[in-house]
Design brief:
By secondary structure, this protein is an alpha/beta fold. The chain is 53% helix and 6% strand. The chain has 28 helices and 10 strands.
Length: 680
């Protein structure tokens, strides 16, 4: 009998193929037609997996939703601070200004958060306006002069008078005791506000400024982690955590504060950062990373950036802390050798040693020289990033090219002349790169020095502020007795402001009142012009400056300020004053727009129509005179027209030209006789 193999015998191994076939058979069933069909695959396992992932997702989202709900509740109840860079200007909602709370992003203690300028700018940039943002630290704020002396105020005054037909919005966003973290943070945000240029002066606070690697507010050495924490601080929930820690006594800044209440001592956490160490290198990397990203962001947005290299007192500021264990790297020893070289006349060697001593100083209140190399390299790497070589300009105005007390007040902050130089450095590059036209009529540096509205009050305020600073750590250079205050109104007010007993605005108002009562119109005009710089969108400050200019006998400035006031707020009285002054200055072409305006608002007024006609005729006569400067008939006509306006000065000017051309002219002599009868 033939033996039959059983495919499913338990004693016979089953092949893989057989297994597949078996599995396939198990999943089949007979259809009514007799054909086999597939059974539906089981879904229970897949459903279980999906549910597991859903539960995991919910587990993750629930805490996030809870935190988001807490954040919303905190905002609705008004807890914490809005830390946006800008806020709406309270006095006029058409404008934005720097949010005074924004610095709380960087300082662990609200009490230490510094406040900058409150420069305003329009929400929507007007056509023809050039908007310039200024970023930096205490030097950019203008310490120790602040409102009056900062380089952007010098620049604003110069641009306003050099290019009167262009409106410049210069918004200073600098803060005291910050560093490149703030510069980077602000740079990311200002791109949304249509900047035409960004000016930067920063670097001296890199180690001890807020969140710096050597500061009491440091949060670690990872630049990107610190940036994340800055961003998170804008959340009200994070603010709640910080406030809770502060109340529990865990605020590092307050805990580390020493006897001196000054900002420097409170911010400096590590006094011993030796040249070339890991911590030193981290500070360099921090500066380079932040500033490189600033340049990259702004360059990609095609926003011109003007970055100045850094200046500091090389010759007249000894190193603060030296490494006494290493003679070669002892900053004080290097400084002594620099002094020897300087007084022996070897200025090149002296400069090298002074800079080396500064770099070896373990207390890093002055930027190391490598920062200037970093700035220079970035300016060559990115398009639209321009180097402002302020250092070379300072060296040109320093004995033997070594920067000292001639331009610097203490270790890093310029004096008033130094701030003027810093503004000149920026002005030069703005012109060279085509941001400003090369106008021959632009105010020169010499004219700026003569006309910038700074007074003895400003000089004294700066001097007293510096003296109070130098009495404390780490300088300890002056005595501890009473500050010798000048026995004058300027001296008393300057010391009150420097000592924190009076606000700058109040001092300015009191000085203005006293100068007017004394009829000291030159000093009163300085106060008026300072008000214009402080409140560039307030037409009343321009009107006050115009009236004060008239009292001081400066018709040109009076006409300028009436014109600026009219541009902000057209008005018949302002137009009449501006027109009259322009005619007194022999500028009928500048008077015509005001004459046209007066006719436009009152076309039936015969005086307005006559005035408009006379001005148009005079413009035509002056145009004809350019082709024939000795035309006696035209000269006589212009002189007669000024005679009719009772403008003796201009009438004499043209009749003198006519008599120069023909001394025997009877008509000219007759006009001269009539002019001489006019009162002075």
């Amino acid at each position: 009998m033939k033996k039959i193999n059983k495919p499913y015998s338990k004693n016979r191994p089953v092949s893989v193929r057989q297994t597949r076939n078996t599995s396939s058979l198990r999943n089949r069933t007979d259809s009514p037609s007799g054909h086999q069909t597939k059974r539906p695959a089981p879904v229970q396992k897949k459903t279980t997996v999906n549910r597991a992932w859903l539960f995991r997702l919910i587990a993750v989202l629930l805490p996030v939703a809870g935190l988001a709900l807490i954040e919303i509740m905190l905002r609705l109840t008004g807890y914490g601070d809005n830390l946006d860079l800008f806020r709406e200007y309270e006095q006029d909602n058409r404008f934005l200004t720097m949010n005074e709370a924004v610095s709380k992003r960087y300082f662990a203690s609200d009490d230490e958060a510094t406040v900058g300028f409150d420069d305003i700018f329009k929400k929507g940039k007007a056509a023809g306006t050039k908007r310039i943002f200024v970023l930096g630290e205490s030097t950019t704020v203008g310490f120790p002069y602040t409102n009056n002396g900062s380089f952007d105020r010098w620049l604003r005054y110069r641009l306003m008078h050099s290019y009167p037909d262009t409106d410049f919005e210069i918004i200073n966003l600098a803060l005291t005791a910050v560093n490149s973290y703030t510069v980077y943070d602000f740079a990311r945000e200002i791109v949304r506000y249509e900047p035409d240029a960004v000016l930067i002066y920063a670097g001296h606070n890199e180690y001890y400024g807020a969140l710096g690697i050597g500061s009491t507010t440091r949060m670690g050495s990872s630049v990107h982690l610190v940036r994340l924490q800055i961003t998170l601080r804008r959340l009200r929930l994070i603010q709640l955590v910080y406030n809770t820690l502060r109340r529990s006594g865990k605020d590092r800044l307050v805990a580390d504060a020493r006897q001196d209440p000054g900002m420097m001592i409170r911010m400096a956490g590590d006094y011993y950062i030796s040249y070339g160490t890991k911590k030193y290198a981290k500070g360099v990397r921090q500066f380079e990373t932040n500033m490189d990203d600033v340049c990259r962001i702004l360059s990609r947005k095609n926003i011109p950036v003007f970055i100045s290299n850094l200046v500091s007192n090389e010759r007249d500021m000894k190193p603060f802390i030296s490494d006494t264990t290493d003679n070669e790297n002892n900053a004080s020893r290097q400084f002594e050798q620099a002094e020897e070289a300087y007084y022996s006349g070897d200025y090149k060697k002296a400069k090298e040693l002074y800079i080396k001593a500064k770099d070896l100083d373990m207390l890093r209140f002055r930027a190391p020289e490598v920062f200037n190399a970093i700035i220079k390299e970035m300016c060559s790497r990115y398009p639209g990033i321009y180097l402002v070589d302020a250092k070379s300009l300072f060296e040109q105005h320093s004995p033997s090219g070594i920067i000292g007390k001639e331009t610097i007040t203490e270790h890093i902050h310029p004096n008033l002349f130094g701030y003027a130089l810093l503004s000149q450095a920026f002005f030069n590059v703005l012109q060279q790169q085509g941001f400003l036209p090369l106008d021959q009529a632009a105010m020169t540096f010499g004219q700026l020095m003569e006309q910038m509205p700074l007074s003895r009050f400003d000089s004294l305020k700066g001097a007293y502020t510096v003296e109070l600073l130098l009495r404390n750590w780490p300088f300890n250079l002056t005595g501890k007795g009473e500050v010798q205050v000048e026995n004058s109104l300027e001296g008393k007010l300057a010391y009150a402001v420097a000592n924190g007993d009076m606000h700058w605005y109040n001092a300015l108002a009191e000085l203005s009142q006293q100068y007017e009562e004394r009829s000291d119109w030159q000093e009163a005009l300085k106060m008026a012009e300072l008000s214009v710089l402080e409140f560039p969108y307030n037409e009343s400050t321009y009107l006050y400056a115009a009236r004060t200019s008239q009292s001081a006998g400066d018709k040109a400035k009076a006409a300028f300020y009436y014109t600026r006031a009219f541009r902000l707020k057209p008005d018949a009285t302002t137009a009449q004053n501006a027109m009259a002054l322009q005619m007194q200055l022999d500028r009928p072409e500048l008077a015509l727009p005001f004459a046209d305006y007066l006719v436009e608002i009152n076309p039936d007024n015969e005086d307005n129509l006559t005035r408009q006609q006379v001005i148009n005729e005079m413009i035509a006569y002056k145009t004809a005179l350019k082709a024939d400067t000795a035309n006696i008939m035209i000269l006589n006509l212009i002189s007669t027209m000024y005679l009719q306006m009772q403008n003796k000065e201009m009438a004499l000017k043209y009749i003198a030209k006519a008599l120069d051309a023909d001394p025997a002219s009877r008509e000219s002599r007759k006009i001269l006789d009539q002019i001489q009868q006019l009162p002075e």
